[in-house]
Design goal:
- Helices cover 25% and strands 20% of the residues.
- It has 350 residues and is of the alpha+beta class.
- The C terminus is likely disordered.
Amino acid sequence: MVAEFVPVQELGKSLKEVPKNYIAPEDKIPVVNEPGKSVPVVDLCDFDLSPEQHERVVHEIATASSEWGFFQVINHGIDVAKPQKASRDFFELPKEEKLKYAAKEYGFKSDGYGSKISNADDAVQLWRDFLFLCTSPKRNLDNWPAQPPEYKEAMSGLADDFLMLAKKVLGFLSEGVGLPTDYFEKCFGIPNQSILTNYYPGCPEPDKVLGFMPHSDFGGLTLLLQDGVPGLQVLKNNTWVVVEPIPGAITINISDLLELMSNGRYRSVIHRVQVNASRPRMSIACNYSCSFDSGVAPAPELIDEEHPQLYKPVKFGDYVQEVVKKGPTGKSYMLINHDSKPEYMLFQKH
């Protein structure tokens, strides 16, 4: 059965006031949007790195991942223009054409177009529509949109490119904590990868809604293409910091599994998306995770007297079920072992 919904894109065309089920809780945390005060930017030099440049990239990525949990990469060698155009063209199709690809279930369980993550009566709805694609280990192109004609080729190519980039970044992250280059990649095994394209229409009352609630990502690594419209914000020192879009850059953030695997050396931080009154915004996010039956635990090499074990092992599928059941809000699912924890960790003890 198709998960029924009214596309937010259609609501935004006719409404002057936001429906009550889209009104988000009030947030009084200040927002910073100043040049030089956004997340770090790392130049990958198209991976033509000298030993000195390689050492620089490892240091910059490790530092950004421990201090911010977010960074942007430039000169990464990926053509981002084609998938961005194909995705935008999809969302500009008539409603009837897009609804041919409506998701059959809520909660990102199948390929498809949708708006709601949950059908719970009391759930606050997000001011965005999405198109979700499973891209690894299985990729069923028959389920993907046939329009625009270049969509399947562009997005399948992007999935391959994202897979390659994620593995290279995992190598830098492994080296950044003194582990063998392939350590984290081996932990993930055959990756579970998906691509989520988010479309945030203009909103008549943008201060009352959110494109995405404050949350941390539950996977391993997230790679994100932004268009030129700001909206993504990262929580740092109790302040929302705008991730300023850089043309052609890919934004990368540490997700929960990598924080667990690194025993807290790398941070999976809370972030959100705000919308605006007039300019639609689109982003393309890739989630890189392990299989649902995989067990995940802190690296033994990163546990010692000075760095006690922070997290209990967890089965990834069980962890995802908790996130889906409670909704992608906050950061309260990871299991922690002792009382000494940084302030940014908002985990519940079990």
